[in-house]
Amino acid sequence: MRLLILNGPNLNLLGLREPDIYGREDYEALKALVYRSCQEAGLEAEIFQSNHEGELVDRIQSAYGFFDGIVINPAAYTHTSIAILDALKAVGIPAVEVHISDVKSREDFRQISYTGMACVKTYMGLGLEGYRQAIFYLKEYLDKQRGDCEA
Ligand code: CA2
Question: What is the mean pLDDT of the chain?
Answer without folding.
Answer: 97
